[in-house]
Amino acid sequence: MISDIPCVILCGGSSKRMGEDKASLPFLGFETLLSFQINKLSKIFKYIYVSTKYSNHNTKGTTIILDDDNTSSPLVAINTLCSYFSKKNEKLFFTIPVDTPFVYLKTINKLIKNNKNSIANEHYLVGVFETNIQKDIKQMLDKNRHKIEQLHKIISTKVVVFQDEEQFANINTREQYAKFE
C-alpha cells in the first residue's frame, strides 16, 4: 500500500556525537544514509520530504523543507512542518529521523493507519502528527520549552506498542555507525 500521508525524514540535528553530518554518511551500499532512507520509505509513501536547517543534502527528487529557526530542536522542525503542511491542506504527516534506519515498513504502516497523533513506543519522532497541533507547539516555544515528550503529553498522543525495540535503534556515534559500514 502506498500512503498519501506525507513522509518527512528529519535531518536537522547537529550530529555532535558523530562529529559530522549523519545524513551524508555512506550506508549499507547507498551513497548516504539519507538516500538509504529515501529509497526505503518510497516503497510505502507517495510523497517524501526532508526537514533540515540547511539545503546541502542530495535529496533525489524529494522536497526540502527548511526549519523556520536555526535553534537545534525537533520541536522547531515539527512546528515548521505543521505550518508547511497546513498551507497544503494536509491534516497529517509522518516523521522519522534520518538516523533511525531500521524501523520496519510494517511498523510504519501500523502507525499511519491510526490517522491521528501517534508514536512508536516512546520514540517521540517516529510517528504521525496532526497539523492542528501548531498552536500547542507555539505556546511551548514561546516559553522556551523544547522537549518533544512534553508536546506528546499535551496533545494526548496515542502510543502504539511494538515488541521489537531494536528496530528503533539510532546511529549517533562512530561506534554505532561502524557496525554497519
Could you walk me through the main structural features you see in this protein, from its secondary elements to its overall organization?
This protein is α/β, with parallel strands linked by helices. It has one domain (7-178): Spore Coat Polysaccharide Biosynthesis Protein SpsA, Chain A (Alpha-Beta Complex), CATH 3.90.550. Helices cover 29% and strands 18% of the residues. The protein has 6 helices and 7 strands; from the N terminus they run E-H-E-E-H-E-H-E-E-H-H-E-H. The chain has helices at 33-41, 74-87, 105-113, 134-142, 148-154, 174-178, and strands spanning 7-10, 48-52, 63-66, 92-97, 118-120, 123-130, 158-160. Helix 2 (74-87) packs antiparallel against helix 4 (134-142). The radius of gyration is 15 Å and the shape is globular.
Briefly characterize the structure:
It contains six helices and seven strands. The protein is of the alpha/beta class and 181 residues long. The chain has a seven-stranded mixed β-sheet with strand order 3-2-1-4-6-5-7, sandwiched between helices.
Features:
Spore Coat Polysaccharide Biosynthesis Protein SpsA, Chain A; alpha/beta; globular
- How many domain regions? 1
State the fourth-level CATH superfamily: Spore Coat Polysaccharide Biosynthesis Protein SpsA, Chain A
What is the name of the CATH class? Alpha Beta
Biggest sheet: strand arrangement: 3-2-1-4-6-5-7
Main beta-sheet annotation: 7 strands, mixed
